[in-house]
Amino acid sequence: MAIYLSAGHYNQDSGAIGVNGRQENNETIKLRDRILGYISSNYRVITDNDSESLAQYLARIRPGDASVVLELHFDSYNGKASGSTALYMNDAPKNSIIFSAELCQFTATTLGIANRGAKSESDSARGRLGLVHKAGITSLLEVCFIDNQEDMDKYDANIDLLAQGVAKILMKYDDLIS
């Protein structure tokens, strides 16, 4: 039983570059650390290391069926797209789909942006996503569009509410499977 929380990008992998040169890795690390601050010490939490790649993290972790796994990202497209999306594995178990939908709805509502929905990984630009194939209840959350100034302004204004709520959702799902 554990919560696995990943920033999705690390120090040497900037990820998407957004408005005013903001880098996805810096934003996901900041959000991950804020979420950690709201998770009760009664929960076992395993995170990625800011110096390890996603491949290294995936090789290191061993979540089981009684795990909750979340990877954080920021989307990027054309500076005009907006909203939050959560992705789950193709043929995902019901709990992963519900978890993804709840994360996406909460994020969109908290930030006041579009809910782009919970979708299977085949609906993503990559088609296959590594972390969502780990055991347990899994999701990849695209918080908002890093290249959309309005999305990022809403994110900046609500980061603590977002972090607190995501922490509550993670603990809720960990309690469900404990």
From the spread of the alpha carbons, the general shape counts as globular
Q: Give the CATH superfamily.
A: Zn-dependent exopeptidases
And the CATH topology?
Aminopeptidase
The H-and-E topology, N to C, reads as EHEHEEHEEH
Class derived from helix and strand content = alpha/beta
Low-confidence stretches at least 5 residues in length (pLDDT < 50)? none
Strand percentage, roughly? 15-25%
| Top-tier CATH class | Alpha Beta
Count of extended strands: 6
The total count of helices amounts to 4
Radius of gyration, taken over Cα atoms and rounded to an integer in Å: 15 Å
Output mean pLDDT: 90
The largest sheet is:
6 strands, mixed
Gap between N and C termini: 6 Å
Give the number of domains: 1
The strand line-up of the biggest sheet is 2-1-3-6-4-5
CATH 2nd-level architecture: 3-Layer(aba) Sandwich
Task: Please describe what this structure looks like.
With about 180 residues, the chain is of the alpha/beta class. The protein has a single domain (about 1-175), classed as Zn-dependent exopeptidases (Aminopeptidase). It contains four helices and six strands. The protein has helices at about 25-40, 55-60, 95-110, 150-175; strands at about 1-5, 45, 65-75, 85-90, 115-120, 135-145. A six-stranded mixed β-sheet has the order 2-1-3-6-4-5. Helix 1 links the parallel strand 1 and strand 2 (about 45). It is globular, with a radius of gyration of 15 Å.
